[in-house]
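Handout, section 3.2

Students often ask what a structure token actually looks like in practice. Rather than define it abstractly, here is a full record for Ig-like domain-containing protein. The first block is the sequence as you would receive it.
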Amino acid sequence: MNGQPISGTTTGRRRRGTRLGALATGALLLVLTACGGGDADGGAKGGKDGAGSGAGKQEIAASQAVVTIAPKDGADAVATSGALKVTAQQGKLTSVTVSDTEGHKVEGKVSADGSTWEPLGHLSASTQYKVHAIAKDAEGRESAKDTTFSTLTPKNTFIGHYTPENGQTVGVGMPVSINFTRGITDPEAVERAIKVTAEPSVEIEGHWFGNDRLDFRPENYWAAGTKVTVQLNLDGVEGRPGVYGTQKKTFSFTIGRRQVSTVDASAKTMKVERDGKIIKTLPITAGAPSTTTYNGQMVISEKYKVTRMNGATVGFGGEYDIKDVPHAMRLSTSGTFVHGNYWASASTFGSANVSHGCVGLRDTRGAGDSTTPAAWFYDRSLIGDVIVVKNSKDKQIQPDNGLNGWNMSWSEWKS
């Protein structure tokens, strides 16, 4: 009885060992079979056609396309115009991205043959840019290049002082007028950097008065309710050799109701027209025979409840110096106003022209009486409203004397 259990136990151990050995041998054969790829013929074919062909497909041949970026990587004090260009040889550009450190992208265009990319405008000054460009060769293989460069920091700069103000509601005659702090010798570059749009859309053109003022307007007065947006992208524009703009700003304004008033210097009246209807006819006094009022279309550019008018500042010597002229609205740079007049008798208005070239309306001293013709007109006028003077024995006002470009034909304006 004692021998049987020992014999049975010994037999069981031998069988387990035999099974493990057989399993190990089977696993080894399985591994060898898997590595061999099958029978001898199949292994030969796999090595020749399968392994050889597969190695050819996995091998990555270098793209023949060569991307070149100017300026070179790490360049500093790069010009804001004319320096940036991306090219591809033995391939075509498929993607070019240029952006500053804040993520603002530079618009550009790839040539029709895919060989070059150039920006559509200038770059900003004192700015770091990153360039990422990709090209493909004839086999569709990509080649990429990345560079970083910084633009110059100008020593001499200019800005543009503009009117009207952001968010302002103005009359239908209001142009966009920009006065530059330095004379511009490359007006095309500066004008390209300024975009003026309107909603509803209308054609808008710019016109230079000298080398330091640029105005924009449509062919006819703005439509009431129009929203005008101005984008000044002057940062980096070389307005004259070595002098660069510094502004990058967007502002907008709204055109209010349509009000156009007509002064008849002969009849000595002013008819106020609002949205196509005459709402008031006011008696006025225009320029005296020796100091006549300009004819033409004039735009209100400033309003003062009370202001000082000194003849010495506009070429009239010491003929007058009135420290408290009420309800004054400027029509020209040279000193033409429509304003209240408290020093002439009430009978003067509508019967005699006695001013030094301005249009006078009856008023009281101090501008405190809201019932006078001058106060009535002042309270109902906007900067940008148009006042047309006719039948005066004077010449037409010059277009650059105030915001008065409407005195030019559309063809003259665009030339």
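Discussion prompt for tutorial groups: The first helix runs from residue 3 to 36. How would you have guessed this from the sequence alone?
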